[in-house]
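A student in our group prepared the protein record below, which I am reviewing. This is what I was given:
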Amino acid sequence: MKQWFSGLGFKSKEESIKDSIPEPETSASLALKVLYDQLRLQRKYHILDLGPALGANVDFFSQFSCKVYIEDFYRTLTSFDYLSEDKLSYQAVFEYLLPYQKNTRFDIILGWDLFNYLERDELRSLILHLGHFCHKGTLLFALISTSKYVPEKPTTFQIVNHDRLLYKTNSAVLRQCPRYQQTDLNQLIPNFRVSNSFLLRNGFKEYLFTCE
C-alpha cells in the first residue's frame, strides 16, 4: 500500500514544535455575517462544506432553504491510499475524492482553513476541480493564517451564531504555515476574485472569493 500526498505536511521531529492545546475560543467573523446576509435572501442554496460534520453547523444552515454537502476533506485526503505504482495527478485524485454530477453547482463553498494545509500545486488543482461545479457568483470562504506555524491538523470551526465562530485546536504539534498572501491567492485561485477580506485578531485573515 502506497501513501500519497506526502506534501500535505507531516514534518520531521526537528520541524515539529510542541505546545499545549489552547482552550476553544470564539471570535467575530465578518465573512460569516456576509454569508448569513446572502442566505437570508430566501432562495435555495447548494453549499459545499469541506470541513468535518458538526451538528451546530448543520443546525445553523437548516434555518435556510439549502442543501449541504459535507466532505471532511482534509481527513479524507490524508488517509487516501492507492495500490498503483503510477503516480496519480492531483486532478485525478480530486476527481476521485470529490465526484459530483456534471450538473452540480455550488452557491457557497466553505474552505475554512484547509488552504493552510495544501501546497501550491495542490491548492491550484483543487480549485480547478471545484471550479467545474461553480457558477458566476459562487462564494468561496477561506481562513488564511498569517502565523509562521499552524497546528498539525486543521482547526475545527463551529458556528455560534450569524457572526461568530468557535475555534477548536486539534493538535499540540505545530507545522510550518505557507502564509499565503493575496498575491499568491490571486494566482492559485483562478477565476475567483477577492470580494471581501478581514484581518482578525487571532492571526487569521478571512477571505470571501467570488467566482467570475
